[in-house]
Structure formats: structure tokens, C-alpha cells
Amino acid sequence: MPSSSPASTSAAKVQLQAGRPVIDLINRLDCTGLSAHSRVDFADMTRATLDYLVHVSGGRPIRVGWLPGPADAGWVQDAERGLREALAGKAITLAHGGYGPVDRSRQAKLVRELLKQHPQLDYLIGNAEAAAFAAQLVRNTGSGAQVLSFYATERVLEQIREGQVLAAPTDSPVIQARVALDLAVRGLHGEKLPQLISPQIEMLDAASLRHFDLGRLMPPEGHWMIRQELPD
């Protein structure tokens, strides 16, 4: 189950009541009794991003914009928890840009408003959609802000290669998916499952990306997916 929406939670409960294993994949499903979890804590993703910023900025005081995504999503709540913890004792002034669905139109509006209200930002950290748009806007307007995403996607990787996005952490979602499938099979066979398996988080920038195995992040060539309704 790769979603934290109420519909996913309801679907998970139906499957659990039917005695089927349910694996929480990537986005922190808020449902009791899950069989196992294949994900990382997004608090750790944000901590990794802030630690990277402190390193590249040399510890000097910096101004950072923040655009996390939808307020009611579990992964956003985790990310903000990590942000609060990582900010403690740091010379970082945070400008919160607000919440919104992770779609281009909404995130573009939030990015524009954040940069309008805080034109002197040194860095902007956002969800992948916000970061992708912010990178284009910063390039076109000549803003001095550097952009990071607190998770990596194919588009973000392209912008890192092009020098538009500074960096993003990856939680190796392909590895998480493979682990989740293995856990589901083991659960169907009645095996005892570990509660949580998490890949190691790695920061990707222009230098580290050259040596990173993209197979941990991107689906293989020719990959395709069949979608079907879960049984009642």
C-alpha cells in the first residue's frame, strides 16, 4: 500500500480483516495491525537534507524556504518533525511557504508567493513538484536561491544533472518495493515478518549522482504496471 490517504487506510483494514498480509510501502500508512513496513522515516530524509545544507554552507547563517506538501499526509508530518529536530541549534532562519496538494498548479502558486514574500532566501527545500518549478523560476528570474527537494524523482535527478537543483536525498524506492513484495510473499506463506525494513538514505548531488546505481531509484527499461481493484 503506497499511499497514506483515507481510502488506502480503509482498503488496508478490509484486507487485514480478511486475514491477508498488508505491507506499508513508502508513504507511512496510518493503520493499526499492518503486517510489516517497507519505508524510511521522512524525518530522516529531512534531517539528511538539512545536514547537507549545513555542510555546503559552511555553517554560516542561512535563510531557507520550506514547501512540504499536503498538511494531512503522514510523510509530510514526518518530514516536518525531522525539520524541527534538525533546526535545533542551527544558524538557519526558516520561511514556511504553506501547505498544498503536490500538483504543479498549486505548488507553483506557493513557490511564487514564497519567493515574493522572501526574496533574499539562500535555499529553498520543497517536495519534488515544488522544487522542480522553483528551479525553473529561480533560473528565469535570476534569484540567488538554490533549490533542493527532500526526496528524489526522475525529474529532480534531471535537474540535478543540469545544475538547476542542488541536491535531494533518496530512499531507494525500487528497493523498498522489492522488499515489500518479498514481505508479502513471506506473509502469505505464514512466515513471521520483521516490523520495519529501511534502505539507507543517500544524498544525491551532481558529484554523487555520477556514481549512484539508478536501478535503486528508477524502474527498469520496459517496466509497465497493471492496476486492478483489491478483492473484497
TrEMBL record:
Family (UniProt): Belongs to the bacterial solute-binding protein 2 family.
Keywords for the protein's UniProt record, in alphabetical order: Signal
UniProt GO MF annotations: carbohydrate binding
Annotated localization: Cell envelope
All copies of domain Periplasmic binding protein, residue ranges: 4-192
Lineage: Bacteria, Pseudomonadati, Pseudomonadota, Gammaproteobacteria, Pseudomonadales
Listed Pfam families: Peripla_BP_4
Protein name: TMAO reductase system protein TorT
GO biological process: transmembrane transport
One cellular component (GO) term of this entry: cell envelope
Organism: Ectopseudomonas oleovorans (Pseudomonas oleovorans)
